[in-house]
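Hi F.,

I've been meaning to write this up properly since the lab meeting, where we talked about keeping a consistent format for the predictions we share between groups. The idea is simple: the sequence comes first, exactly as it goes in, then the structure tokens exactly as they come out, then a line or two of notes. No screenshots and no reformatting. I'm using this chain as the first example so we have something concrete to point to.
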Amino acid sequence: MASLTAVALVCSLKSSPAGSSSDLLARQVLDELAEHDVTGEVIRVVDHDIRPGVSADEGDGDEWPAVRARVTGADILLFATPTWVGHMSSVAQRVLERLDAECRKPTTPDDPPCSARSP
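Output, unedited:
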């Protein structure tokens, strides 16, 4: 059986290398997954130029396509965000908006939006 891979999207408002509780939490989860032969990586979203929009590529300079490739290539997606006044961070909201492009592409005509996909 091939080992699984995980990507943790950390939606902290703090750029690297500043401390972040969301980053710490994501790394702790990835450490636990590693004990089950899951290889993981952390992507701190705010360190990338992720343009606003709901498509897979918002044009020149948009770094979402590279992040998206790492997300879609993973078996597990971990989404870590702080809460601000009871809401996810604005960075997390932007990521969800960009992931909307994935929800619009069913793998078969009978798939509901954002259905589970198998390789």
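Notes:
The mean pLDDT is 90.
The first helix runs from residue 21 to 34.

If this format works for you, I'll send the rest the same way.

G.
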